[in-house]
Amino acid sequence: MADRLATELVGAFDALFGVHGGVRAAHAKGICCEATFTATPEAARLTRAPHMQGGPVRATVRFSHGSGDPDANDTSREPRGMATKFHLDGRKATDLIAVNQPVFVVRTPEEFLEFVRLRVPDPETGRFDLEALGAFVAARPESVRAAEILLRGMPPASFLQAEYFAIHAFRFVSADGGARFGRYRWEPELEPVTLTKEERRERVPGYLQDDLLARLKEGPGRFTLHVQLANDEDDPTDPTTEWSADREQLVAGHLEITAPVGNQERDCERLLFDPMRLCDGIEPSDDPILHVRPHAYTVSSARRAKAKPRQGG
Predict the structure, then answer these.
(1) What are phi and psi of 74, to 5 degrees?
(2) Taking the complete model, does pTM exceed 0.90, yes or no?
(3) DSSP label of 173
(4) Which of 33, 64, 115, 204 is deepest in the core (most CB within 10 A)?
């Protein structure tokens, strides 16, 4: 069931963004950077996960555009991604996947498939059925916020000037066996800024990568990792709702991004970032969206492996 649904989801992204061999079905346009993560003592008390014990951990960070088109214009409104791979001992790794919006649009993979299909433009008009999409969202009040961000939100001024949210909840298990559900959030050192309408018209299609490379030449980019902890009334299986701002939060660590990786094809585009690639001390919730994601990534990755590497872009 999950594999069939994953195949249909990848097909829906192809219909929405076009078929582009050798790249991801979504978040096709991206750039990877070398980084170092250092956890805080608070993180070590929360979880026994190896990368949360306080020593410096090598990481690879991929910033991306949410579209499945590798030539997507950076000024469009698709979500921006920040995927982080923490490299552990023994050639193992664990991943943290985040986007620059705090909530997901639906609660189930089946609804997400329907939502993506509703966004596919009519081949004759080049436009999607706004009335049908509006009816879909109106029937699901939990979808309103994410849909509004997607359709009306402005792109960030810089990859390094955006907050990124993991959306899903995870169960953090401490050394003594205690457990709490929590959600990740990356906070940039720089103030989050989005483009104005005028700035959006003036930006070149690849401004986000250009900006990132220019900033890294001047010095490291930095983010702080926060974990917001759930109360009993918070549902860890529902990615469409935000938890109250008064929930306990802790600083879990600091990330320093130093430079782009040397070989973007080998050390970036061949990597698979998977929110279910977890390690001891961090467990998934029963969120159905979270559990279908690795199946879709596997379908997309298998297709990429069969295609010739894309030149340029």
Answers:
(1) -65, -15
(2) yes
(3) E
(4) 64
